[in-house]
Every structure is written in structure tokens, then in C-alpha cells.
Amino acid sequence: MIENNVMLIGNLTADVEGKYSFSKKVDANGQPIQFFSGRGKIAVKYGYDLQKQQEVVSFIDFAFMGKKFEKIANYMVKGTKIGISGRIETGSYQNKSGETVYYTRVRADEVTLLGGKKKEEAQQAPAPQQAQQYQQQAPAPGAWVPQG
Q1: Domain 6-22+33-137 classified CATH 3.40.50.2000?
Q2: What whole-number distance in Å separates Cα of residue 84 and Cα of residue 10?
Q3: Which residues pair with 21 in a beta bridge?
Q4: What is the mean pLDDT of residues 22-46?
Q5: Vertex 49, ends 48 and 54: CA angle to 5°?
Q6: What share of the chain is helix, strand, coil (3-state, %, to 5)?
Q7: What is the pLDDT of residue 101?
Q8: How many CA atoms lie within 13 Å of 109's alpha carbon, on the beta-carbon side?
């Protein structure tokens, strides 16, 4: 039974950051295995503050890894509504100042695009007003250290 499972729906606060890296593992020919990984942040609504007359939003970091994300990464642009399922991951690292930084994020096993445009098309169209609002409310992104 899997006890660490989370499912979220929200809007991307910025284009996802994807990159290719090489694993320490090697293939049958002795070559390092290349893999695709990335990260992003979604704004998830979970209530309404009557006093402030605004929605209550959490900003959740997520990370993904693997070939299945390579093709959809171009569609994961600011303002796109996505669904994520995966597991909560926590950890820490030392920043450049030598301080310990703790993080919590979702390690995505599945990402479902619920609306949006390809990166080239999105650059031509203005960003949705709602996504701009979330980006302004979003705290500065923290450092991200890939696992694996």
C-alpha cells in the first residue's frame, strides 16, 4: 500500500525548467545514460478569504524525471492548468553561504495537461490575467537540487 501519494490541480506560475543530464549508470555500450528532468511551480487554490476578498492560494514546487515528460515539457508554460500526481519529497542541502536549506516538493510520477498552448504559441499570446496574478504573489523560487 502506497501511503505517500498526492494529486494536485493548479496553474503553472512560470514555464517549467527542463534539462538533459547524464546518469552515473552506463548502458550496454559503456556510455553514460542520458535522462530528462525538470522542475516547476503551480498555484493551487484551496479556499476564499472573506475578509481580504480574495482566493487563498498555495504555491507548490514539483520535479519530474524521465522520457515521458520530454515531449510535454514544451506545453508546460506559464498559466497552463495541469494535474500532477506523485509523492511528497523532503530534503536539505547546503547553499553557497553554508546554510542548510530545507525543501518540500512533489516528485511527479504523472502530469496531465488540462489546458494551454505550445511554448512557441504561448509567446505570441498574452498570458492569462489569473496566471499573472499568481506569479506576482509567488515567493521567489528557491534553489533546486536534482536527486539521483
Answers
A1: no
A2: 9
A3: 35
A4: 85
A5: 75
A6: 15, 50, 35
A7: 94
A8: 9
